[in-house]
Amino acid sequence: MIQNSGSEEDAHALMDERKRKRMISNFESARRSRIRKKKYMNDLLSLMDNLKHENQQIFESIQSTTQNYLNIEAENSVLKAQISDLSFRISDIRMFEVFLSFRGEDTRASFVSHLYANLQNAGIVVFKDDESLRRGDHIDSLLEAIRQSQISVVVFSRNYAESQWCLKELEKIIECHRTIGQMVVPVFYDVDPSEVRHQTGEFGKSFQSLLNRVSIEEGEKELRERGKVQCWREALREAASISGIVVLNSRNESEAIKSVVENVIRLLDKTELFVVDNPVGVESRVLDTIQLLDLEKSNDVLLLGMWGMGGIVVHACFFIGMDRNDVIHILNGSGLCAENGIRVLVERSLVTVDHKNKLGMHDLLRDMGREIIRGKSPKEPEERSRLWFHEDVLDVLSQQSGTKAIEGLALNLPRTDGQCLNTKAFKNMKKLRLLQLAGVDLIGDYKYLSKNLRWLCWHEFPLTALPANFYQGSLVSLELENSYVKRVCKKAQVMENLKILNLSHSHYLTHTPDFSNLPNLEKLVLIDCPSLSEVSYTIGHLTKVLLINFQDCVSLCNLPRSIYKLKSLKTLILSGCLKIDKLEEDLEQMESLTTLVADKTAVTTIPFSIVRSKSIGYVSLCGYEGFLRDMVPSIIWSWMSPTNNSLSSLVQKFGGLSSLVSLDVPNSSSHHLASLSKDLPKLESLWVECGSELQLSQHTKIILDALYVTNLRESESPATTSQMPNINALALIECSSQVHVSGSNLLIQMGMSSEVSSNLKESILQNNQDCLLPHDCYPDWLAFNSKGSSVSFEIPQVNGYNLKTIMCHVHYSSPDSITSDGLKNLLVINHTKATIQLYKRNALALLEDEDWQRVVSNIEPGNKVEVVVVFGNRLTVNKTTIYLIYKPMGEKSGALSCTKQ
């Protein structure tokens, strides 16, 4: 038992020992495992650090590669731009110094030939087109020659506007004048500049002849839709407005040619802005410059001048979307030759000028220009010449760190920003010339603003008036659109250099400034100022103003009388001024006024002085819109009513009215017609539409009675000449030129010439008293005759043929004791259509084929027509004969071979 008990104890002890060893072994194993794991984690962390470092290196390498790629791409873009610019400059070399535009048949062998020789003798390279070019398909080459010329000399002659090619040349010349600043020298050869400007007189007739011809060829609708006519009219008006040389007779041709040559030489010698081949960057030239200076061999102090574009490109970034002429004014005020500079930029495609004369620039070019300025001082924006970027501008203004290096600054803030800046921020900007703000609130004394400011554009100007200490004598343009201004200045401030004042959309503006303090103002724009009720009488002091725009000033009442004294004003816009109900007769005092826009006003009566005006071209008033000369007849008849104005009262008001020579009268009253010949002696033709046969009969009697009284008065007047005037033989042929005759023959041709009309003329010229046509059986005419001064007939239908010409032969006689006064008037009365056409003798000589076609076109087969001739008193019309001449349908010329039906 005792032995067994000891064995068990040993066994237990052995087991405990084994367990203890096993536990020790497990603990040691766990400890080693923890050590291995810790070492593994440390190795893993170390590996992650290494990977992170390697990733950072890779990222930096990628960034560097990307930046290198961007740099290479930028360099490639610059290189492409330089190559493109080089190609453009090579293709844009000005090959000619002068381009001659003229009408060949008028001046080629005379004036132009001598002018061309004198220009060549002066060493001037001249482009003068020849007939082979005009006959060929080289109009594109001709227009390219215009673009490659420095000056265009346009010789306006009577028939210049009759050529479509001449007008295409002129249109291109004016386009180059507007876009690239090409110089234009107009020469008015035997034509008045006003006739060219307004397309009147002989020049206007040639232009109308072209329009009639083109409208037939292309169709009136297509011609109108393509806007050809309007472009031609604008080109003629703009060219004729340029100061030129007038040659009204052959005796002063040599002096005129001398003046033209001297003028061209002066223009070619004009100093222009010099632009280097590479206007951006100087790094590529540094080494060449150092080598040229040879600094190692010289210890002297040297002066190095750097030529560039004078900041004109960077300046242009400020004026994107602005009117080109306004920009020129502003930049000229800064001492730059802006017109030449902008022309060069346009030539190099750096800026554009659209059809509204607005400057444009591609976004990439704009950003490039801004980056160039930014790159000169990337970390110190106050040292840059111009500030555009929002953060940079705010940084400089908020820290008041501006310097004299800053010449231009632009900042646009939203109104909800609520941030106020102090005017002291501008204290050190002594050279600041261009300041453009929008939604900016400034507090402090405005004396800190630079006195060199030329342009201040401040949209949403927060004050009700300019501060009392706002002294800006050098300011050229002040633009305060959408402002809170009530009056411009509380205290009189003289701004003698101000040319542009724009307060548009200032809804609180109630008073205009004292214009006597703005002696050089040229442009006044007050669009949409609803609180403005009156304009200061001092507006009459603006002796240099060119444009006044009061559009949509709905509270503005009638204008001060002093405004009508503005002799320099060219454009007056009053559209939308609902309370303006009257325009004064003094309007004619505006000698330079060419455009009057007064639609959507309370004006109901057009002033009589508008018709008398010699300058007004475009009018929009009382429902009339267009060129004044085209609307004169309609305007005058709108004035007339039995209870308002008679022709007598109108003539008294018109005085020296000379523009009214022809009237179309729709359903006029008998009262008006009765006074027509008495009160409008200058009226050459009349077209009356009657509502019925009864009214036609009444009107015919009234007209004939009035003509009889007029002719009787003229015959009794001692000042009346007794000799017959010399009338154009193509329209009116008077056969007997003897003073004392017992019989005379007269032939009037209405329509196109033909063999029959030629035979009639020949017979008349041979003084055949009976004036019989050869070949009485000739089938292409029909004859109707009657004793006395009138003949009635019905237009026959001739199958396959159209009426071409009406020949009126009159055989008349007069006592031997008096001298014949000849024909006075011709009436064509269409009883079927109830129309009367009246022509004075002088008008018959001036009518052309197109005018006669209007007469003939009113006569159709089946119409009952009466032709009446009115001669001077004491003359007897023995017989009146009408010959109708037909032509085959669709045939323009050639022999006639129809048969009577």
Automatic annotation (TrEMBL):
Source domain of life: Eukaryota
Domain BZIP: 16-79
Keyword DNA repair on entry: no
Protein localization: Nucleus
Keyword annotations of the record: DNA-binding, NAD, Nucleus, Plant defense, Repeat, Transcription, Transcription regulation
A GO term from the CC aspect: nucleus
Domain called TIR: residue spans: 94-268
Example of a GO MF term: protein dimerization activity
Pfam families: bZIP_1, TIR, WHD_ROQ1
Protein name: TIR domain-containing protein
Organism placement in taxonomy: Eukaryota, Viridiplantae, Streptophyta, Embryophyta, Tracheophyta
